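During the second year of the project, the team shifted from modelling isolated chains to modelling whole assemblies. The rationale, set out in the original proposal, was that interfaces cannot be judged from single-chain predictions alone. As a representative example for this report, we include one of the complexes processed in the last quarter. Its constituent sequences, exactly as entered into the pipeline, are reproduced here:
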Amino acid sequence: MDRVIEQPLEAAFVARLPREWARAVWRFARLKPLGALGAVLILIAVVAAAFPYVFATHDPARIVAAPFTEPSAEHLLGADYAGRDLWSRTIWGARLSIMVGVLAVFAAITVATFLAIVTAYYGGLVDLLFQRVVDTMMTIPGLVLALFVLVVLGSSLNTLIFTIAIIFVPPQLRTMRSVVLSIKEMPYVDSARAIGASTLRIFARYIFPQLIALYLILGSLIIGTAIIIETSLTFLGLGLPGDVPSWGNLVSRGVRDVFNAGYRLTIPPAIAIGAAVFGFNLLGDALRDVLDPRLRGSGVGLTGRSARFAEQIQSAERGRPS
Amino acid sequence: MGTYVLRRLMLVPLTLFLISLLFFFMLRTIPGDFVDFLFAEEGGSGIGQRITGQTGSAEEEWERLVRERYGLADPIHVQYVRWTSHLATGDLGNSYVNQKPVVDVIRERLPATVQLGIMGLIGSVLLGVPLGIVSARFPESKLDNLVRVLSLGGLTTPAFVIAAVIVVVLSTQFYWVTPDFVPFWEDPVTNLSNIAIPAAVVSFTAAAPIMRLTRSQMLEVLGQDYIRTARAKGLAEGSVFYKHALRNALLPVITLIGLSLDRLIAGSVIVEVVFGVNGIGAALVNAAETRDFPVLQAITLLIGAAVLFANLLVDITYGWIDPRIRYD
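Output from the structure prediction step:
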């Protein structure tokens, strides 16, 4: 950046950039108010996840009050069964859920994109093999598959991220693969091959750029589902260890303590989960409409595992006489 | 059509085989099996005596005996062949934890889950389709916005959050305690009143995608030329909407309903645990916690088979509902 500002012409451009950005953001907000609401919710969650110590009033792991202390100015949401501050624990919970969701989804889509390019481009036996494995894995509901993988790997933060990534690869691979299949038949890919571009170059310079929009859309759409799966697994006692301040654990503990503390230990983390997932889904929907309106109504974004269903509808449409 | 069905049917055993292979080997190749787990939990001699019925061996000896008892000492492929050949005769092995035949565990647990699934499915259709239609009938109205927010809520709120909130609110406000599950044929009234709330939670989460797709399909169909023709020749709006548009719009919705089985299953796993329904989902979570491999394998295979057949059924009925679709 420093080097750029030294040059007067580009300096003017850079100075204008924030205003351009502001205008683009404003236009997006006007066009997609729900998407903007989603962005605000995500912003709140991401800020809480990045700087929990700013907003948390107490150490989330320390006992700072009597068990089941009522909410007060000192303890905004009261204290849990051990006397730890619920407000602080809920804030720190954002860090775990957002981190697991973002990392798992990033890993899953990156792997899926890579595999999609390779299998769709080469076709043949490898492609067929991958398709069968994808079919097989997609037959099992995501939560059940995740449960199984977690039993095998044992529960920890890393295995949880890995597990959620695994269950997201097959549906994303299928969506990406169908797009790569259509791209690879385009004349410009043939031309690239004709002028002697290497396979690697074709992948990186001719096919991958076409996938970036889809990459972003799929990513923002499934982070919400990833957070649902993470919190669900933790809630069931199979994800993160029981004493870690994660949203799934907080809700689970709140339900167990209902006869000591009523519903006030359960509702705040429940709202946090709902709001975060709601935010990601709203933004994902809006991004899809703005970046690639063709995907609208195709079923992409209905649920994390909707790719199969989208393909079903598309193949049914293809079977119709036009 | 006949050959298509045949071809799809031939794929079923292949996929089932792949599922069993995938899960079997995944469980066996990772270090830290059931025996390690149990020995770490309660020590070798206790568990060894319970399983083999012998006394007075050394710690390592117990481990060897227990492994031999379960055939864990054999090579993996031998274990797999033994497992599948038993499977073919309907013998799913015994639970590692309480030595009960897995078939009995499933037989005992299945009714509750099936009932929850059927009620959830019916509820989700009754909730999703009409709301989607109403929403498309008056697009951008207050009602439409309400329905859209509701369906987004159903999509975005995890089943366990809804279930947990319901449980805590009911138990604090009405001193309600999660009831025990009673089979339908023993006491229909108690059964239905106990399972109504869990089924409602499952319905709500499964209804959301149905609601959204019904709405978007209706709006898409309403924009087509033949709808304009129908309006141009002076048909009443109700007739255009319900006779001309609805039938075509519902085709993809039927596909989605058929494919919502995995959503129903995921929902009922959670709901069974929260509401204490004695079903397959609760058994699955329990088996995962105790590393009860035979139960875990049998239930995942069962779920895989159920989803596989549901998908097959959807594919076949689709051609039957809409004769325009040709299978190559």
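Residues 108 and 168 of chain A are 6 Å apart (CA to CA). DSSP finds 14 helices and no strands in chain A.
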